[in-house]
Design brief:
The structure is a homodimer of 367-residue chains. The first copy, chain A, is α/β, with parallel strands linked by helices. Chain A has helices at 24-31, 35-43, 50-63, 69-76, 92-107, 121-133, 149-164, 190-203, 219-234, 252-265, 278-290, 324-336, 341-344; strands at residues 81-86, 111-116, 138-142, 168-172, 183-188, 209-212, 245-246, 272-275, 300-304, 318-321, 348-351, 354-356. The first copy, chain A, is 43% helix and 15% strand. At the A-B interface, helix 4, helix 5, strand 2, helix 6 and helix 11 of A face helix 4, helix 5, strand 2, helix 6 and helix 11 of B. The structure holds a DNA duplex (30 and 30 nucleotides).
DNA sequence: AAACGGATAGCAACCGTATTCTGTCCGAGT
DNA sequence: ACTCGGACAGAATACGGTTGCTATCCGTTT
């Protein structure tokens, strides 16, 4: 009776076709125990004699066995996976949030799926459908949207569907769709951030401030505009004078084009810019430089997001920092521990932002 | 009798606990057909009467049924998922590759998992183990490594293990571990790119060129150094004069510190820099600016990777562009269609790079 | 000495789908 | 009228694990 030694034998008896991966049955056979015993020896949740456990472990190593996650998920109905849906993984904003999700997921022994929606709500719904099939632990939807009744209904529906599938819907950086829904919401201070940013500029003596970038009905834009308006109003200024709020895009090109056109058309009738993000700011700075306008001597500029690029612009860009990583981490943490009394009550949180001071803002010149 | 209309009834008969998600059985019961018929009506691979199909589809909609991906994977042994392992999802280099992977995965109706290794080979192996449990379609390992016999053995082992699990190992941006292994390799021209870059600088009259950044034994560094050496040698210059090759780091800070120290310690004894990547270049440019050295008037600088940041530096950075997205796409495409005769023979490809000309390189000043 | 109970291990019943194998019905061909 | 084959639907089984229940062995307790 051979095979007393540890020689590795192929899992399949017959040698005809392609070798299959080893199953729990192969392990059981090799260790000379039942399938149930193998399962228990590996799970560690059930008493198994040390000698038996050793034999099983030996067989596992010999056969390079790993459990079949699908078979396991089938009985347990948990798949140890977190999914993130974002508009574009290559964007620094989203990839940093994904980074946070990954950190926490990894810490909680979960894998992470990443799906790109390209900003298309229909595709988003379609992807959630696919993820529902996966019985993922949580689905994190990232990024601003247009807040309409239709949006709220859509999210409410997804929340309920995911809930009955045992998954948790997490909205990250977008508003809550309503009360009493099985949903986790992790936001960051857009209104407050813009308020602080505008106040900071006004503290430096600026009165003629441009709000540059953003797309109209999007909640993120609306919230920031709200903060901007409140800040100006608190100093008895109006944000709604013509030509002060320049939304309509959020790309580098938009920042460049808009400021360039403004400089060609008008007097230099502003002393500061609050930009949608650092990229828009970069575009604006390029246009200003080309026009010979000194930054920050003549015009101060404040970015948003505090991206990598901020410190390499000339001058280095002062920017509103968003806790990207913490957003991602919180999303996962709150979703997974939603039963835990410590966090059960905080299924809707709002993280703060802060200004990182560099060199692109200076006291306004006297009028 | 009963329920002739389309009234929605809960999937579970008893109403006690939390509602479960609908299963194929629920659908079958509601449509008044067998489970097998539902499966077939939905797969479309088998003749089903139109009336029956309609009833099934109706039931599916009423119950918000989606198949259980795990159950399906269990019979089919395919999970419709691609996994990417990279060092850090927040880095632009990796996130752009992930972007390409996502594009192709999405086009092939696959989901994408993203795992972060933080550059730790052990963690990489551990993650592959987890992914083997998932019977993923392909596992894409991204990023340079140290090419040792031990590395090759490790990869060979993973390749075989994944192969018997029906998955494909893809190495992206790292060398092939050897012949006759079930592995797909997608590289990009490091040696060639550095050769072209150095040649471009020399075409502009530069003779004293610094190679700035990279970590010693890493294959990517070695390949680029090789290209750099070959280029210089082709013009009868030696790359190995002291102080010409400055490796030891690949961060912005490294670029800044190294150039700053050099300028403090030595004469300005170079006219051009070939940087490891755009970030290192940005750091170097900051150090040069602080020292009052004009770029590109006095020193030209060439970046690598052509990241977003390149166009916003002052001056805009000329850089070697790597086909990040195409790397990711090819990785997935080749892995999934490896049986297809059209690509079966090209399981090891090398994509080219090119120089994107902006404003950071100028003719060298006459000596 | 008999009964008891803790420590282990095996049997078998699921988990939700896909698929093979049968079986029925019905129209068409002879 | 009878047979034959195609179209369709159902029963049964396989996929790879997990887990409740049962069975055995043996040292203890009364």
């Amino acid at each position: 009776m051979g095979n007393r030694d540890g020689a590795v034998t192929p899992p399949s008896a017959e040698d005809g076709g392609t070798p299959r991966a080893a199953t729990i049955r192969d392990v059981a056979a090799r260790a000379g125990v039942s399938v149930a015993t193998v399962s228990r020896a590996l799970s560690g949740q059930y008493p198994v004699a040390n000698a038996t456990r050793a034999r099983v472990q030996r067989a596992v190593r010999d056969l390079d066995y790993v459990v079949n996650a699908h078979a396991r998920a089938l009985t347990g109905s948990k798949s140890k996976t977190i999914a993130v849906l974002l508009s574009d993984i290559a964007s620094p904003f989203y990839s940093r949030i994904a980074h946070g999700v990954e950190q926490q997921a990894s810490a909680e022994k979960r894998l992470m799926m990443v799906c790109a929606t390209h900003g298309d709500p229909e595709r988003e719904v379609g992807l959630v459908e696919m993820l529902r099939e996966q019985s993922v632990d949580a689905v994190v939807l990232v990024g601003g949207i247009v807040d309409t009744p239709e949006y709220r209904e859509r999210m409410a529906r997804l929340a309920r569907l995911l809930d009955t599938a045992g998954s948790r819907l997490v909205l990250c950086g977008r508003p809550s769709p309503g009360e009493d829904l099985p949903v986790t919401v992790v936001e960051y201070e857009n209104s407050g951030g813009a308020f602080a940013a505008a106040s900071y500029l006004m503290d430096k003596g600026h009165r003629d401030i441009l709000f540059l970038g953003g797309v109209g009905p999007d909640t993120t834009t609306q919230d920031r505009l709200d903060g901007f308006r409140r800040a100006l109003a608190s100093r008895d200024l109006s944000a709604d004078e013509p030509g002060r709020i320049l939304t309509g895009g959020n790309s580098r090109q938009f920042g460049y084009d808009t400021i360039r056109a403004r400089l060609l058309r008008e007097e230099l009738d502003f002393t500061a810019i609050l930009a949608w993000d650092d990229l828009v700011a970069a575009g604006a700075m390029t246009a200003l430089r080309e026009a010979g306008v000194d930054v920050p001597g003549r015009v101060s500029i404040l970015g948003y997001n505090d991206e990598q690029i901020a410190q390499d612009l000339v001058p280095p860009l002062t920017s509103v920092s968003i806790p990207h990583t913490e957003l991602g981490r919180s999303a996962v943490r709150l979703a997974l521990h939603r039963e835990d009394p410590a966090v059960a009550s905080s299924q809707h949180i709002t993280l703060g932002t802060h200004i990182v001071v560099r060199g692109s803002v200076r006291e306004a010149a006297r009028r």
